[in-house]
What does this fold into?
Amino acid sequence: MSTYLVFGATGNVGRRVTERLSWSGAAVRATSRRPESARLPEGVEVVAPDLTAPGVLEDVEAVFLMWPFHSAEQAGPFVEAIKRNVRRVVFMTGGGVRPGLPPEEQPNPVARWHATVEHLIEQSGVEWTVLSPSTFMTNTLWWSDQIRAGDTVRGAYGSVTMTPIHEDDIAAVAVAAMTGSGHGGRRYDLTGPEALTQAEQVRVIGEAIGRPLRWVELSVAEERERLLADPSFPDSFVDELLAGYAKMTSAPPPAPTTTVEDVTGTPPATLAAWAAEHAGAFERFPA
Ligand SMILES: NC(=O)c1ccc[n+]([C@@H]2O[C@H](COP(=O)([O-])OP(=O)(O)OC[C@H]3O[C@@H](n4cnc5c(N)ncnc54)[C@H](OP(=O)(O)O)[C@@H]3O)[C@@H](O)[C@H]2O)c1
It folds into this structure.
């Protein structure tokens, strides 16, 4: 039986990829730095996240790869190991990558690392598919503490439009590309079904959980201060995030693609469905 390797198997998307493969009866090997707390389906073999380690890619038909690292240092050795051992790789790239631009011309470091991995994979001779997802619906959990504490979400750039996607829809496309044919050499732009401003996303979540939630616009300076004071939000990411939103306000709003349905035969989930599934995360704090 073919084995599938999922890199980053405890992540938002990797966990869903692992579950989908495992529930289909496939043999799955999955990476985690903490196997004891990985909570992956029974039968999944958990290994350390090093594709160059002996045995990790043995008998592997296809790899799901994402890039959790803060440099592209390991990209060369990882892609070399994939090239030597594996027929197919599905790489989930970063949202900021501009296709067609070489890595060194990408707009920020995160995009440069992801573009470097893409470039190496595309040059490797391995059958590859790149998944380029829009913003994950799970990002709305950034608002969960505010929603648990009251009926408003305070933030800047409420009019910025996104096409949020359910992590499981990305996983469904990943599994189709890992296990099926016809996906080699394709770069899939994956989105959810709707274009929604941040303020609209808050309203939709409210409707799904039965509360009248509302966006309260902050100035950029107020939002910067709020994010820097939030211990759950990495300080190093604050300015990058705000600069990204500023750029998005001046760019044409993104439009949904049909790729999830084209590849899987199933339309992507709405934010309302995602929020109903995650309603527990938005429940009011006990009084
Ligand atoms: N969020 C978005 O809106 C969005 C949009 C487009 C693209 N993306 C891209 O999606 C990726 C993030 O995916 P995700 O949200 O599914 O992941 P995630 O939930 O952040 O999980 C990260 C995964 O990587 C593993 N990991 C973390 N640090 C590691 C390290 N130093 N060495 C080895 N493994 C490590 C973790 O495993 P253990 O902790 O178990 O070891 C975990 O399985 C990024 O590349 C991001 O650019 C995100």
Notes: The radius of gyration is 19 Å.
